[in-house]
Design a protein that fits this description.
Two copies of one chain form a homodimer.
Chain A lengths: L1 H7 L2 H11 L6 H12 L7 E8 L2 E9 L4 E6 L9 H5 L3 E3 L4 E6 L4 H21 L8 H4 L2 H7 L1 E3 L5 E2 L2 H5 L13 E3 L6 E4 L12 E2 L5 E4 L4 H13 L4 E9 L5 E11 L10 E7 L1 E3 L6
Helix pairs in contact in A: 3-5
Amino acid sequence: LEYVILNLLDKIEYISRQFSKAQHKKFEHYVVTRIWHLLNDLSLKIVTQQYVTRSEGRAMTDLYFPQLQVHIEVDEGFHKKQVELDSLREADIVNATGHEILRVDVTRDIDSINGDIGEIVNKIRNKKSGLTEFKPWDMEAEMSAHTYVEKGFIDLKDDCAFRTIIEALKCFGVNYKGVQFVAIKHPFELDTIIWFPKLYPNDRWDNSITDDELVIKQVSKAPDKAKKHIDDVKSGPYHKRIVFTRVKGPLGDILYRFKGLYGLDIDESNKSDGLVWRRLSGRVKTYRLTL
Amino acid sequence: LEYVILNLLDKIEYISRQFSKAQHKKFEHYVVTRIWHLLNDLSLKIVTQQYVTRSEGRAMTDLYFPQLQVHIEVDEGFHKKQVELDSLREADIVNATGHEILRVDVTRDIDSINGDIGEIVNKIRNKKSGLTEFKPWDMEAEMSAHTYVEKGFIDLKDDCAFRTIIEALKCFGVNYKGVQFVAIKHPFELDTIIWFPKLYPNDRWDNSITDDELVIKQVSKAPDKAKKHIDDVKSGPYHKRIVFTRVKGPLGDILYRFKGLYGLDIDESNKSDGLVWRRLSGRVKTYRLTL
């Protein structure tokens, strides 16, 4: 199955689907395709209509270069539509604090717009060549546990997301054929659970993560079981969680997005707030499979 | 009103709408936008999803360069969908006999596809520079009677279509403010009517034009009036018609497309076949407005 997914989604298909998605603004299409084709650089990944968290709040940018942390905004000259909370709920949201935003004013004539896009293309090229460490876009590697096992760790900066829980678990020496649970004991770190939660209100949980992603709250929706669950976790041996949140990726596919290592805040966890998890680290160690 | 239309539809809007339209095939979008952006030539007009008549029958091509008579086909490697007759009925159909068709095979990897598109871009540039007479794309001029009045004639090769009957009539010295009729007497050529028919079955007429566009048949749907209409035209003084057919343009807008000068075939016109008009010329004289 994984083999099929990787093969179906090659670069031409990925880019075509990104282009098709880019058209909530009148000229967004034109700008996005022009930047991509003029850059003419298959080592650069793009995401169109990326949800982001910024100091001003959550928003959507028109074109995102994850490796460069650069976003392009197509500026139509009137006030931007509010991002709908419904579509945001399950979305893959990038924390864009400190990212660079470049704007294209499309209220002028085609020659001026083309001129601006030319400058943006140059800026992107310069940004890439100015990076001390640039990792070319590799669709297979970015979705493969192997990459992170070889590397020895996963860091938030790696922009790491897997298509399946099984693939994510391979980073920690776990080789399951099928997984029905969203929380699995770490085979080597005995105080740690590898956790794949939905970090938004769902059938069983009223979960949330703060915009700065430093705090996760896990609140049960079953009032009779809530207290026992909290007490069990507090008194149990598993006070750390490696978190991959279940999100809808940019093409509508399910992804498990790495969020870091979180630790239980015993004092803050209580019946009304649920379990409170605080981020301990943006980096976790990976392990080879033991045969 | 005309002023507004011209201003609304500038090149950036025209191209953006053409891009948005291009996506009935999976990778059509990618190919169309890449060719356009790499050509980077605002003197070249494009039409996406152009209906054409060829010796093999009617079809739709993915990208059309009217000035060069070159079409691009995105080849997905399986049998092409039949063009739906319904959408074809009112469509603006180009006679593509003798036009050049270039194909892009999108069943391979992105590097090969990009390579092919690079070659196509070079071919298009060479074709343009090899033309003895090249008319740069001018959106205002192509929709303005003035262009043809200055030139002294309209020829089929001019790819001439107007947005309004009023604008078309300005080519023949007629300056009406509003027109309710689809047939107006030519002020200078006394055997000629300027005619703006729907050349497909409609409420009142069962009209048709042959694929080679040499013969138009005009058949009334009102059996009681049909014979009288035929007799009146046969015995009347107007045996020639300058024809602009009413079509749906590539962006869904109404256009009046020049088709040439047609003459009545008196012998072939009868109650069952209706009026039979044969093309006499692909070129008609234009006249200045008399003030």
